[in-house]
Write a structure and sequence with these properties.
Layout: H1 10-15, E1 18-22, H2 27-42, E2 46-51, H3 53-56, H4 60-68, E3 73-77, H5 102-123, E4 127-131, H6 137-144, E5 148-151, H7 156-168, E6 181-182, E7 191-192, H8 199-202, H9 207-221, E8 224-227, H10 231-245, E9 249-251, H11 255-259, H12 263-268, H13 278-286, E10 293-297, H14 306-319, E11 322-326, H15 336-349, E12 353-356, H16 362-366, E13 371-376, H17 380-388, E14 393-395, H18 402-412, E15 416-418, H19 437-448, H20 452-471, H21 477-505
Parallel strand pairs: 1-2, 1-4, 2-3, 4-5, 5-8, 8-9, 10-11, 10-13, 11-12, 13-14, 14-15
Antiparallel strand pairs: 6-7
Binding site for UDP: 28, 269, 300, 359-360, 381-382, 385
GO molecular function: nucleotide binding; UDP-glucosyltransferase activity
InterPro entries: Glyco_transf_N, UDP_glucos_trans, UDP_glycos_trans_CS
Length: 506
């Protein structure tokens, strides 16, 4: 009998929760939803992750590791639809996805919606956890009479900032795109400009504005939201957000630290098939002194034009510090790849720098004693992983909610210094702005120079790093919240079983 039956072992029915997790098809979203799924499995929940073949490849090794530890977690693969003109294997949104294929991938995702809903019906979970980009899933959960939890991207601060802008429209009260305005109603005084806002918030509503409204409406109808954060970092904004939204919410982070506690987990996180050379970069790091290496990465969704790559390269070379630069995959034909190969050859000869093309074993690199600071796009996964590794940040936001994350890092918790990027852009566009080598160099010099302000920043991030470890231990803030949530979900399941028993008796 399934978990909603009234026959058989009711004790087993009510003590084991069955959950389905549905991640979105971009790497950063995929990783954070899968890591949350793994946390629930660590705490006795029977977890199934639904995804497509190419997306499963990015995390399946981690799931196999967890299964070998007797955790009840598995992947259910759904073939990606055969959309005319879409080559097999193109199922994910990242910097390497050709622009002309994006509409076809979205079309495939739309076709999958009915299959996902049918799987929910067949699997009969006690609750579902889905990415924010599946707002329709709240109605699917309601149809089944089960809770839906939404995995929110980014920080509590970012969501609170969006709420402030939607409620008060401070950007409409300034005369230019570069004039600063205060974000009203927040616990801290934070200023931004119109140029730093996402286009869907900046002026006239666009298609994405309406999608974000659907996402917010679906969150309000959900049982609650899960954030990859922890109370000691964002407790003020967690409370602010819950009050502003009128919803339940749980910070269960740092999720990566919680589920990736040994080297094998850290090494296989992400596209392990691309990471066969990770031992080489770690050996290179072993030859460097403590806190001497700068780690530079802009995430899986970014690409730069050659003009910007040249400025970054010169800034790194001129800084006098050793560095690792994750350049990703550079498109041929624009000159960027040729330039970087020459640059790589030069810094290799001097043993000054290490370029990673494609996937990087980021967790292992950040935790290496030789790494002293990070240049980041302010993607929330990287911010959390850097805090855990006790590393200060040079912030270089690009798109999504990254400018809001920068404000949290620089102005609120004060563990970073801005490179000076002024304008938000879409993830699949280059944008017009080119950050000059001098500005990049100033940020690097501040972080790596050892001045009084830099040392104070390092002390602050060290305190937060200690708090990350405590948050996931027994009686820690995130541990306690997760256990309370699981007990709530068990209680809902038990009530349902008891109601069915009473109906059967009647």
């Amino acid at each position: 009998m399934d978990s909603f039956g009234v026959e058989g072992d009711h004790q087993a029915d009510t003590t084991v929760l069955k959950a389905v997790f549905l991640p979105f098809i971009s790497k950063s979203h995929l990783i954070r939803v899968v890591d949350k799924a793994r946390i629930f499995a660590m705490h006795g929940v029977d977890v199934t992750i639904i995804t497509t073949p190419a997306n499963a490849a990015a995390f399946q090794t981690s799931i196999d590791h967890d299964s070998s530890r007797s955790r009840s977690i598995k992947t259910h693969i759904v073939p990606f639809p055969q959309v005319p003109g879409l080559p097999q294997g193109f199922e994910r949104l990242d910097a390497d996805t050709p622009q002309h294929l994006l509409p076809k991938i979205y079309q495939g995702l739309s076709i999958l919606q009915e299959q996902f809903q049918q799987l929910f019906r067949e699997m009969r979970p006690d609750f579902i956890v889905t990415d924010m980009y599946y707002p329709w899933s709240v109605d699917a959960a309601a149809e089944l009479g089960i809770p839906r939890l939404v995995c929110n991207g980014g920080s509590y601060f970012a969501q609170s900032a969006v709420n402030s802008i939607e409620l008060f429209s401070p950007q409409a009260k300034v005369d230019s795109n570069t004039e600063t305005f205060l974000l009203p109603g927040l616990p801290h005084e934070v200023e931004m400009t119109r140029l730093q806002l996402p286009d869907w918030l900046r002026g006239a509503p666009n298609e994405y504005t309406y999608l974000m409204k659907m996402i917010k409406d679906s969150e309000r109808k959900s049982y609650g939201s899960l954030f990859n954060s922890f109370y000691e970092l964002e407790g003020t904004y967690e409370e602010h957000y819950k009050k502003a939204m009128g919803t339940k919410s749980w910070s269960v982070g740092p999720v990566s630290l919680w589920v990736n506690q040994d080297a094998s987990d850290k090494a296989c996180r992400g596209d392990v098939k691309e990471g066969k050379g990770d031992g080489v970069v770690l050996t290179w790091l072993d030859s460097k002194t403590e806190d001497s290496v700068l780690y530079v990465s802009f995430g899986s969704m970014n690409k730069f034009p050659k003009t910007q790559l040249v400025e970054i390269a010169h800034a790194l070379e001129d800084s006098g510090h050793d560095f690792i630069w994750v350049v990703g995959k550079i498109e041929e034909g624009e000159g960027g790849a040729d330039f970087l190969r020459e640059f790589e050859k030069k810094v290799k000869e001097k043993n000054r720098g290490y370029l990673i093309w494609g996937w990087a074993p980021q967790l292992l690199i950040l935790e290496h004693p030789a790494v002293g600071a990070v240049v980041t796009h302010c993607g929330w996964n990287t911010v959390m992983e850097s805090v855990n590794a006790s590393l200060p940040l040079a912030t270089w936001p690009l798109f999504a909610e990254q400018f809001f994350n920068e404000k949290l890092v620089v102005d609120v918790v004060k563990i970073g210094v801005p490179v000076g990027v002024k304008e938000w852009r879409n993830w699949n566009e280059f944008g017009d702005e080119v950050v000059k080598r001098e500005d990049i160099g100033k940020a690097i010099a501040f972080l790596m120079g050892g001045g009084d302000e830099s040392l104070e920043m390092r002390k602050r991030v060290k305190v937060l790093s200690g708090a990350t470890k405590k948050a996931i231990q027994v009686d820690g803030s995130s541990y306690t919240k997760l256990k309370e949530l699981i007990e709530e979900l068990k209680s809902i399941k038990l009530q349902k079983v008891n109601n069915k028993l009473m109906e059967a008796v009647a």
